[in-house]
Amino acid sequence: MEERPYRSASGAPIALRCRQHSASCRELVVRCPRLQLRSLSAVTSAVWLAAYALFVLSENSMVLSAAIFITLIGLIIYLHFVKIDQESLLVISSLGIQVTSSYASGKESTTFIEMGQVKDVVINEAIHMQKVVYYLCILLQDPGDPQGVSEVVPLFQSSKPRLDCLIEVYKSCQEILEQRKTALQSS
User: What Rg value do the Cα atoms of the chain yield, rounded?
Assistant: First the structure.
């Protein structure tokens, strides 16, 4: 298990951990930076100072209570539904691909794609705000047309790794997919 430092598309530090469980099973985990206590304290202080200023002007204690309540609810929503600590990709050649997102609150969201549905894993590019952004995606095979693609499933949407990190993940996925193709051809 090795962990290498990379950067996200926005320049934030991320880390890629590759773990090979067997020749046909590989887990790739992209870890995002953790929530910084300094930034959390700064935002909370700014909201509470603004609420205190409103309290002084209006002399209504409900302003302070509302600010505390809104800050706490906002923090819970942010940690449970927005802030993702890590995204993982588990590729098993005989079964499929499992995509997991782990939130800061501990909640996990998992999607499983059967290997029979996977046509390919590719690096795609998009133009966003006058910038070219690369992303890894799974192409799902169209059941009606063996040469067609029915759906594109983007990966690592929260961490948004740069191209050098995506190439490492892409190579690992392609090794497993090639093993599957050779095993299917030999049988």
Answer: 22
Whole-number Å distance between alpha carbons of 120 and 117: 9
| 3-state DSSP assignment of residue 67 | helix
Cβ proximity of 118 and 135 under 8 Å: no
Decide if pLDDT at 187 tops 80.
Answer: no
Q: Rounded to 5 degrees, what are φ and ψ at 134?
A: -100, 145
The answer to whether 68 touches 86, Cβ cutoff 8 Å, is: no
CB atoms within 10 A of CB 2: 8
CB atoms within 10 A of CB 30: 25
Question: What does pTM read for this prediction?
Answer: 0.84
| Whole-number Å distance between alpha carbons of 135 and 179 | 23
